[in-house]
Design brief:
single chain, alpha/beta, Rossmann fold, binds adenosine-5'-diphosphate, binds magnesium ion
């Protein structure tokens, strides 16, 4: 295998607020350049914490993360992050929100104009450039957030349950859009979702996380499912088998084994 673009090695994380909360323990995995990974796991198992570490917003308590051959020590312009809640700036138009990362980077206006225009077209927001976030639907806000992350042309795109707040139909459409954009840009992508079906539908590989403290219980290779993916595939026996494999790993991660391992790790 060629050198992975992302390497996560024995990453642990403990919050220290009023009392220590161990969120992650011994998380290890790698991603190849251009790969689409999905991450599933029970609520509260540490998925968002892991994504914030991969975005350089949190430093791991243990272990390390290497991206494009360098240890990750803070946020980087070539890593984009989209949250479940879009955190668009309400006083800026869609266009101005998407432009923000380029302003911060000081890109010449002409180039920024073009990039913003291309990206808004790619996510299907032409005609809404001058709208404010509150004037557009949740799905459109999420497209704007995606455009804002993509306008920097990131090599790594991190998505934290990006479509979880949307209705089922919009969510399905957004997943197809996301796959279309990925086919176009081929940025390495890691999407957190709590939907097993969604994970299998979008990914090349599904990583399964245990209960808190989260670690990677196992993974399911989904490359057998051809691309481009279509909704009919969800009715295929292969699709059913793949989701079943993911489900079994989730169940494994919920067992006493998970806690046993977590506790073992604490004593090391
Ligand atoms: N700032 C914080 N201080 C203390 N504990 C936290 C903090 N943020 C998250 N946690 C705890 O860490 C665990 C993992 O949280 P999170 O990464 O948000 O899980 P997930 O995204 O998988 O639902 C949870 O038990 C959560 O309550
Ligand atoms: Mg979360």
């Amino acid at each position: 295998m060629s050198q992975p673009i992302l390497e996560v090695h024995q990453v642990g994380y403990t919050f220290h607020d009023t009392h220590p909360v161990r969120a992650l323990v011994g998380v290890t995995f790698q991603a190849r350049d251009g790969e689409f990974l999905a991450l599933v796991g029970p609520s509260g198992c540490g998925k968002s914490t892991l994504l914030r570490i991969l975005a350089g917003l949190l430093r791991p308590s243990e272990g390390w993360v290497r991206f494009a051959g360098q240890e990750l020590t803070g946020p980087r312009p070539d890593i984009g992050l989209v949250f479940q809640r879009t955190n668009l700036l309400p006083w800026r138009t869609v266009e101005a929100n998407v432009r923000l990362p380029l302003e911060i980077r000081g890109l010449p206006k002409r180039e920024a104009d073009k990039r913003v225009r291309d990206m808004l077209a790619l996510v299907g927001l032409q005609g809404f450039e001058r709208a404010y976030p509150h004037q557009i639907s949740g799905g459109m806000q999420q497209r704007a957030a995606l455009a804002r992350a993509l306008v920097k042309l990131p090599r790594l795109l991190l998505l934290d349950e990006p479509f979880a707040a949307l209705d089922a139909l919009t969510r399905e459409r957004m997943n197809l859009e996301l796959l279309r954009i990925w086919a176009h840009h081929r940025q390495t992508t890691l999407m957190v979702t709590h939907s097993i079906q969604e994970a299998v539908f979008v990914a090349d590989r599904v990583l399964v996380m245990s209960d808190r403290p989260g670690y990677i219980v196992g993974e399911v290779d989904v490359t057998e499912l051809p691309r481009p993916r279509t909704w009919e595939m969800m009715a295929w026996p292969l699709f059913g088998r793949l989701t079943q494999q993911v489900r079994e790993l989730i169940l494994q991660g919920l067992g006493s084994d998970a806690h046993g391992r977590g506790a073992q790790h604490l004593e090391e």
